[in-house]
Amino acid sequence: MIFKQLFDTKSSTYTYLISSGKGREALIIDPVIENVGEYINLLEELDLRLVKVIDTHIHADHVTGASKLKDITKCTTIMGNHTPTDAVELKVKDNEIVKIDKLSIRAIYTPGHTSDSFSFLMDKYLFSGDTLLINGTGRTDFQNGNAKDAYNSIFNKLLKLPDETLLYPAHDYKGEKVSTIGKEKKFNPRLQVKSVDEYIDIMSNLNLEKPKALEFNVKSNLKLGSI
Ligand code: FE2
């Protein structure tokens, strides 16, 4: 299998390129528009044919490269079925399987960071978007975010996966690249709560600044980055 974790320094976004092998089909998760040239070069270098591109949710901090990749490669654009836009070609439901070659990726609806957030599980690789981060969790204070939903998605869905599941989030701000569900259960400070109310309380008091260009990014991402 080919697995590449790519990093956008401006937004601290991780983008993932996955394929079953050289000369075969490929999938990209959470592309950033400014880095599309880099992805195309990498696809050519590895002799891969991009067939699918997934956005885990409507991002607020960067513009997706999905439309641009589709224009260049004719790949299919995919998001979860709670994203309020017709720009997406294939909207997947909770538990639906996305296939490329021999690889199967299961969509898991994990609302909370945003109301449209999905995570994607391929064998023991979990692409958690901004639902579960390394030593953190996605903020819940805009885009219909909801701390109670986030708690449910994290505790009743993602943390029920086996401890050895590899956690690959959409962002990291401290240079961490990968974790496991087991490590996060033990050490993630946001997860050391005793009740949903305690979690809601933490999330209600983060007092974070809004991302720069939030309105533009969301508007553009609802068109998959084509404006
Ligand atoms: Fe996000």
SSE map:
Layout: E1 2-8, E2 13-19, E3 25-29, H1 36-45, E4 49-54, H2 66-73, E5 76-80, E6 90-92, E7 97-100, E8 103-109, E9 118-122, E10 125-127, E11 132-133, E12 136-137, H3 147-156, E13 166-168, E14 179-180, H4 181-187, H5 196-204, H6 214-221
Parallel strand pairs: 3-4, 4-5, 5-6, 10-13
Antiparallel strand pairs: 1-2, 2-3, 7-8, 8-9, 9-10, 11-12, 13-14
The structure holds fe (ii) ion.
Task: Outline the structure in words.
There is one protein chain. The chain has 227 residues and is an alpha/beta fold. It is 23% helix and 27% strand. The chain has one domain (2-208): 4-Layer Sandwich (Metallo-beta-lactamase, Chain A), CATH 3.60.15.10. It has a 6-stranded mixed beta sheet. The chain has a 6-stranded mixed beta sheet with strand order 7-8-9-10-13-14. A hairpin with a 5-residue loop joins strand 2 and strand 3. Helix 3 (147-156) packs across helix 5 (196-204). The mean pLDDT is 97. The structure holds fe (ii) ion. Residues 57, 59-60, 113, 130, 138 line the site of fe (ii) ion.
What can be said about this structure in brief?
The chain has 227 residues and is of the alpha/beta class. It is built from 6 helices and 14 strands. The protein has one domain (2-208): Metallo-beta-lactamase, Chain A (4-Layer Sandwich).
Q: What is the total number of structural domains?
A: 1
Structural class: alpha/beta
In CATH, what is the homologous superfamily? Ribonuclease Z/Hydroxyacylglutathione hydrolase-like
User: What is the approximate shape?
Assistant: globular
CATH class: Alpha Beta
Please report the total strand number as a whole number.
14
**CATH architecture label name:** 4-Layer Sandwich
What fraction of residues sit in β-strands?
25-35%
Mean pLDDT: 97
Provide the gyration radius in Å.
Answer: 16 Å
Which distinct ligands sit in these coordinates? fe (ii) ion
